[in-house]
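ERR on first pass: missing label on line 2. Operator R.T. fixed the label and resubmitted. Corrected input:
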Amino acid sequence: MTEPVLETRGLSKAFGALKATEDVSVALHPGEIHAIIGPNGAGKSTLIAQICGALVPDAGQVRLMGRDVTRLPVPARARAGLARTFQISQLAMEDTVLQNALLGALGASGRPWRFLRPALGDQSLRERAEAALERVGLAAQAATRTAELSHGQRRQLEVAVALTLAPRAFVMDEPMAGLGAEGSARLTRLLDGLRAEAPILLVEHDMDAVFALADRVSVLVYGRVIASGSVDEIRRDPAVREAYLGDSA
Amino acid sequence: MSRETLVNLTMLAGLVLVPLWALWADEPFTITLATRAVILALAAAGLNIALGIGGLVSLGHAVFFGIGGYAMGVLAYHAQTYTPLMEAPVLIEGTKSMPVIWLVALVASALAAFVIGLLSLRTSGVYFIMITLAFGQMLFFFTISWARYGGEDGISIYLRNGFPGLNTLVPIQFYALCLTLLVLTLALTAALMRSPFGLALNAARQVPERVRAVGLDPFRLRLAAFTLSGAITGLAGALFADLNRFVSPSMFSWQLSGEFIVFIIIGGTARLFGPVVGAVLFVALEHWLGGISAYWHIWFGLLLLGIVLFGKGGVIGMIAGRARTHD
Amino acid sequence: MTLILLVEQVLNGLQFGIMLFLLAAGLTLIFGVMGLINLAHGSLYMIGAFCAAAAAAATGSFLLGLVAALAGAAAAGALIELLVIRRLYARDHLDQVLATFALILIFSEGTRWVFGSFPLYLDVPEALAGPVTLPGGIQYPLYRLTLIGAGLSVAAGLFWLIARTRIGVQIRAGENDREMIAALGVDIDRLYTFVFALGAALAGLAGALVGAIQSVQVGMGEPVLILAFVTIVIGGIGSIKGALVGAVLVGLTDTLGALFLPALFELVMAPAAATQTGAALASMAIYILMAGVLIWRPTGLYGARA
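pass 2 clean. output:
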């Protein structure tokens, strides 16, 4: 098997007596979508926070491209090639759609210390931002104030900002949150095409999307990975059915 | 042309024409009043970079104003008493040259802003407000006990400092100098708002998490903005001291810090000309209301309360409507 | 330096700190429960002092002056809460700063209008005038000692109110979860007005008590307000215990800094230069303390982790 792009090894984090994640090891390989599912409170958010650098684990490692990034702060991890999307859209609502995408391109360029020339006049930034908007289908809304976008469009913009980073790996925190069937299907198609560029670690509640997209699924319950395997294996796993999916699944 | 641009141009035209009229009508006091307004506008324009774009509610910007003032006071004091500022390890003498004084004021207040920013930007919200206020008070008490430079009494400078090629003693010439610096600062601010740095800083105010997630550090962006902001307010302090030919600890007073914020809000937050409109209005009201009632602060306080509670967007907001996104 | 001087200065620092606590406790409660930063808290301190001075002058009774201070400040607090402050809870801190800054202007000029620019004097009551002899033969003003005692009793009362009473439960609930207290059927508007008036009364009391050892004048509230801010930045915003610890730290640092720093510099400098440098540094000592705490613990000694 190829070297994983993103990997956690024995990640543990406790808040007092509560073990939010316990010995979590997951790997993300090139070209795949690896879904993490689990009931509310299973520790998915804590796991993402540790992977992206917002929380320092008590024990264990986070490795990106074979390099230990466990101690790197959030911005450094982003510069190392990790792009994330947020469960609740984190977008500059006062700014235009293009400006939000430009922010991503600016982060990727690593050159924010320019004070005089307009950001919009920088062709390389602009092309990068516009390409990302084109990719998610928001090119027509480039000049719109972000606050005026629909919820579904905001979810698409979240993905576009991550795309501008041209990352080595995506970490997506419930990208389908709050979307209807149509929006969900649209975003599913988009993510399906993205895995060729960089693999996606996908935390998601929408089971249709997970089963449609995932190459591998890991199930997180009470902070532990109780099962990991292909979609079919997970569907058949009796422990998963009992702990999470219920008999209806 | 948007209505905001129209308001800005009208304001600018007024700042050029009114003093020219005063010159023609031989009303030197109006020119002094206008100079005061322009310098206060410059101080608030400095703050606007931190507060308007960066969302940093600094209630201690008078620190930088005061440091700029003392940069002028100390240098000019040594020049007028023919005593060196420092003899060892290198000889440093005083000066009466405005460009040199400005440079010192800029550098000194930038340094102070950097250090204060380094400490206070670790916090946010009310902590930040209280801490900047406290550092302001610290410098206030320091200058009071700084007996070498007059302590509570401050320093008087007998003659206004000079600028090559100009006679700064002529009010309109000094005014032109101040207005030029204000216009340059506004041009810089306008460029900044659209620049990559401005984009990132503006985003760090709205969604710091996102800014981190794209690989930028909001703390550094804010520190840079705060430093630049302090430097400009410091420059204004040097000019203010030259206008009055006097510096004292009162330049550090917390009321002044509050007034800088008030100028920005009266004019309109994050508007390029917000500080200008606010400062001009303040100086005009101070002159006009102050002439009617010795207790004009009551009426000003009520007016301010009304604007905060009911008039979103300040004067420019009321005239020109919602802020445009910069593109 | 004698031991007597040291004890005296420690007591002075304690007295200053305890008075600071009365102010800081109200500020931190108001922030903790309502999320409001109130710059006009110093005005309430001033109003308390003026009410006390006016009532004491009219009746000749210091005690009635204190009652007037409590009542006047609480009434002023309740009034501005109803008219202005409650419109600010949902606003950002910038609006709160500006509106309460406007209130300072109105209160300060209003007081000047009514009482004039000259300071008023509030006399220490006769029964408490003069020194008292402490164990070890140290003479100390009885009034200042009483201030320490009175302040500590108020602090104890406040801790009791918050820990043991029904209103205390509501206050604590309000600090944690605003929606929860609404769900409990508490009248939030009334609770907020009460908390604000309580904070105002404490500030007014401090103003009256301190007014007897300093002069009562317009603008007396703001320097001490800023020190109260330093206090709660050190103690941690929202924590009454932090306010008490912070206040005593600030009080002691201020008086002991003024005592020791010049002496300390005399070890390495000529006396005249040492006095100057020492005094300059002493004037900044509490702010340096604040900076130190910030580096070590950005949210204060007892503050919640941000």
